[in-house]
Design brief:
The protein is α/β, with parallel strands linked by helices and 328 residues long. The chain contains 11 helices and 7 strands. It has a 7-stranded mixed sheet with strand order 3-2-1-4-6-5-7, with helices on both faces.
Amino acid sequence: MNGTGGDAKIAVVIPSYKVRAHVLGVIDRIGPEICRIYAVDDGCPDGSGRFIEEHCTDSRVKVVFNEVNQGVGGAMLRGYAQAIADDMDIIVKIDGDGQMDPALIPDFVAPILAGEADYTKGNRFFDLEEIRAMPKVRLFGNAVLSFLTKFSSGYWDLFDPTNGYTAIHAEVARQLRADKISRRYFFETDMLFRLNTLRAVVVDIPMDAHYGDEVSNLKIRKIVGEFLFKHARNFAKRVFYNYYLRDMSIASLELPLGLALLLFGLGYGGYHWAESAARGAATAAGTTMVVAVSLLSGMQLLLAFIAFDVSSVPRRVRHRRLQARAKS
């Protein structure tokens, strides 16, 4: 990869909120393959943007300001918009707190340049030795979030969904509805859902976990309810878009039939169990058979739906088709 990433113009977006202690070091470590660096001051009370303007001498750096704090999602969407306006081809996102190694940027860009991905994201769970350095609470929380994200996004082969080290082809970023994407801590997860609705190919990039003296603003107890609601909402939307609005398949029948049989078995069985318990009599064998068949059939159909969904992860890159359409 040469100074411009071959023929591609590669940009880096750095959300800059309370990162004065680290951001200049991050910028200094960004290699010559990057032709533009956007530091987005997201209404930072410490004046990170002005600090960068005053102390950074890198000519590639352009500081962009959000007058009102919008969270990491709002900062990134502003950076995406600026990079697209400046005719960039690939847009990389790294944090300004020093956790993400800029030397890995070529690893994130390479699958996009090769036409193997539309979007790449970091995964800190590839190396089992390295993840021992991850705090146990983060490890458990990330595992739970990864499981929920598989359901809501449809990318069953991905892990570490909240990893903010990402790269995206500008043609795909252009297709995203910025007004619909979550602005704050749900941003990375919501991006995966939005990318699935575009049928974009997403690839995990192995990376190590690094934790320094940065302080996270994320309070788990305050966002757990919001995350659960948004995961459920995105799952329902994705299923409707992919299995009933955009296309119909055998899975379109398996899901409602499976749910109906499962709910019927639970309701019918619960009612007759309660009735039998109140009379002090055993439940009739016929009733037990009806409940068992309903529950087993419902579970089998739901598992068949999940298996179909897993096999339906997008495999054809979208940015090539978008570029071909733009030229035609």
